[in-house]
User: Fold these one by one.
Assistant:
Number 1:
Amino acid sequence: MSESPSADNRILSVSIVAGPSAGALLEQIGAIKNERLQVLPPGAISGEGDQAFAQLCAIAEQGEVDHLVIGCDSDTPPMAYASLFLSSPLTETARVTKTVLAIRSADLVDSLVRGTSDAEPASPCFLAEELEFVNHIVLDGGNHDPDGELARAIASTLNPHAHVSALSRETAVELLAPGGTAFNFTAALDQAGWRQVIEGEEPSHGGDNHIGSFAYRARRPFHPERFLALLQGGLRGVFRAKGFLWLATRMDLVGGLNLAGSELHCAGAGQWWAARDEHARENEMPERTRKEWQEPFGDRRQAIAFIGFNFDPGATKAQLNACLLTDTEMSGGPESWMNFPDPFPSWSVHEHSHQCDHDHEHGSADHECCHH
């Protein structure tokens, strides 16, 4: 008979639970009788990184529990808590195995597809990024959930590698099952459905649910005025779009597009390698960018994933093509492009958001989301 692990060798197993139905799932988990289980409701762990880290270290060092379940505040993504376990001493004493988003099926569909939710717990972009990061998605909707099938299809499309299940006691027990591999933070960022679309790996859509996707690529810049007009009112049926873009008026700067539901963000995401000096390109530019390089504009290009419900990819591509510079506009060259109307907010070289990461300015270790 094998000996049970001593307290000195015990690794604390951690599950992180987020989402508007986190409270209901935490109740199911808390009802499971287990003296070695500790459930921390939202707010029990500080939202401040240093203080939260100290609290978690103290729990792990006490060795009084085998499984810790952390409830996230509504404005704190599971990524924030998961990242705390990437630093010593938590790397030696605790291991995140589950990151969970719990949400009502109707809330998911309303936020991302219908745009009709009056009780929206968070922004659609925040919700989409949570869905894309976690490795478990729990849908709360009851036995006869009219939105259940569509919600499951959306969840599986945004995150093809997540395990999707219904809210139940069985799911709670499953989330506490011993063992399991450590949550892979890097893989979570790499495996989002939008990224797979850009890389040519179409996500599974789970049957006849009218969800489709495509990667839009082009080697011409967008006319800023035409492109923003399309983003603000013309992308019918698209509930998720993410990637990087090239505006004719901003030859040096990469644009990061993040659209979910009715919410749109477009921010600076670094600097094109083509805008940097020859020494930097020769010594620092990633190999995948070298393979993408095309003269006369180098790595400047459009690479955006579009995911939609009841939408026409062909028509959407045609709309996007109409936003590219025409032959006549292209012939004027970059100096003339600077005179085009540009209604986008200003960007800076140093502006950067995790919403759309790249390896343009900072190197591949910092910018991996779009694999540029």
Number 2:
Amino acid sequence: MFRDVLQTGAAALGVPLSAGDADRLEHYWAAVEAKNRVMNLTAITGEDDAARLHFLDCVGLLSVCPARGAVLDVGTGAGFPGVPLAVLCPDARLTLLDATEKKLRFVDETCRALAIPAACLAGRAEELGRDGLYRERFDVVVSRAVARLSLLAELCLPFVRPGGLFVAMKGAGAEEELAEAANALALLGGEPAEIRTYAIPGADVTRHAVIVRKAAATPDKYPRAWGRIKKAPL
């Protein structure tokens, strides 16, 4: 069922999915499902829901925004959207970032076992975003289901090079979040955002990709400590 749903949905979204790609994604989900019995990786269970609400959600992103160059997934969790992007965009250079080391260790070990070309980086975004090794080094920074946009922008935009993209995957309420985050995006060097929408095939779910092009370098004082970001959003 998983493979059928994935292949049919990808075709509906207009995103090429080879038999090899489908095989690796199916094996990745099997590993997530097995690990989820002993570690809290995802609340989504079952092949049909996983194929649609995890994997086709990520495939759908590629129907409205390509992943090219150096790509960073902030708050990857169980590997979404980073793992599907790494499988489907082999020419991109994916880095998966998460603060929970045991989750990231699972993702890293599973990617290695399945020859999925993704690097894993453990740490807090608000700290690594100030590190010269990572600050303004990525062409695309993407994040899914991590925080409201007004907070997420301060975590993600410092990683984006000027001219690159910050992409936030959002559900209902994306326009409200974008209005709330307009000041933050401007302060952090972003241009006014564009929202691109796609439907997850067979799920009656609409997703919104909030896409922000970075026009200028982020001021050195950002990102702030997480406590400050939460207490006083920009």
